[in-house]
Amino acid sequence: MNIRKRPGVLNVSDLRKMHHDDEDLWPISLADMMTLLLCFFLLIVAVSHVDLNRYERVADSMQKAMVTDKLAPRQKKTEPVVKKTAPPKPQPKPETPPQMVRSKVSHTTLASEPVPPLVQKKTEPAPAKPATPTDQPQTPEPAKAEQAAPETERTGPTRKSLEDIRKELTAKLGLDTSAVEIVSRENGVELNLRGAAFFDLASAEIKPAAMPLLRDIAATLAGTPYKVTVEGHTDNLPIESWLYPSNWELSSARASRVARFLIDGGVPRNHLRVEGLADTQPVAPNDDEAGRPIPENQAKNRRVVILVSPS
Question: Of the candidates 71, 123, 301, 304, which lies 20 to 30 Å from 136 by C-alpha distance?
C-alpha cells in the first residue's frame, strides 16, 4: 500500500534520522572544547616561565631606544635656547680667556678666581725673613737629628760586638752568680744558667721567678747576627719516668725550652742550635774517689749553657 507524503509533514523515520545525526555531532564539539582548554593551559605554562636574562636584554634595548629617541629632540631644542640666553663673554684682559670655566649645567661661561690672591699667598712668606731669637734654635735641631741617626745605627742590636753583649748582660744580670754566671771565652760569651734557679728536679718547665732573667737575656741577644748555642747538662743521677726515660731526654727538653723562650724574645731561630749532653760534660766531679756522690758538684752540673759565638 503506497502512502503519499503530504507537503510540510515529517515522517517518523525522518525524525529518528535527525535525532541520530544530532547525537553524532556532540563528540566533535567536546573535542574542540578540550583542544581549546589544552591550548589555554599551555599558554599559561609558557607565560609563567620567564627568562630573566632575555627579559633584561629586551628591556635594556627598549630603554636605550626610547632614551635616545627622547634625548635627540631635547638637544636640538636646547641648543638654540643656549645660544639666545648665553651672555657675552667677559674679556677684561687678553690673558683671561684660558682661565674661563664652562659649566655643564647652564652652558654659560664663568670667570675663574682672580690671580692676585694666589700671588699674595706666595708672596706672604717671602717678607718674613728677619731673624728672631725663636728661629735660631730651630736650625740646629735637624742637624742634631741627622747626627743622632748614625749613632743609633752604630749602637743598634745588629752592630753589637761580643764585648758589648758581655757588658750589657753583666749590667742587666748583676754580679750575683747564684742564678747566672757570665764567662768570657776567646770565641764568644758563655752564660751558665743554674739548674736549681730555673728548673725543678726532673722537670723542664721554667720557674716563674726565672722569667725576668731570660727576658733580659733575650732582649740583649735579639737581632744579633751571632750564633747562639743552647746546651742542656745534667748530673749523673739516673732518672726514669714516663716523660723522660733518661738524662738525655731531660737535658734536651730543658735546652729546647730555653731556646723557644729566646725565639719568642726576638732571637733569630736560624741562628739557634740546641744540644742535649746529659752528664757527659760535667764542670765538677759528681762523685769522690770512693764513689760517693757530691751534692754540691751535682748541683753545679745541672745547668743550661748559652754560648754566643761568631757565626
Answer: 123
pTM for this prediction: 0.49
> Nine-digit cell at 17?
534520522
Q: How many CB atoms lie within 10 A of CB 103?
A: 9
pLDDT tens, 57-82? 878 888 888 876 545 455 544 454 44
* 16 part of a folded domain: no
CATH number of the domain encompassing residue 252: 3.30.1330.60
Residue with cell 719568642: 264
Strand 227-233 and strand 272-278: the pairing is: parallel
pLDDT digits 0-9 by tens, 177-232: 789 999 888 889 999 999 999 999 889 999 999 999 999 999 999 988 899 999 99
Question: Containing domain of residue 290, as a range?
Answer: 178-309
CA distances from 52 to 43, 63, 184, 253 (A): 18, 16, 83, 68
Give residues with Cβ within 8 angstroms of 28, minimum separation 6: none
Using alpha carbons, list the distances in angstroms from residue 97 to 31, 106, 116.
Answer: 85, 18, 16
Give the torsion through C-alpha atoms of 89, 92, 94, 97, to 10 deg: -40
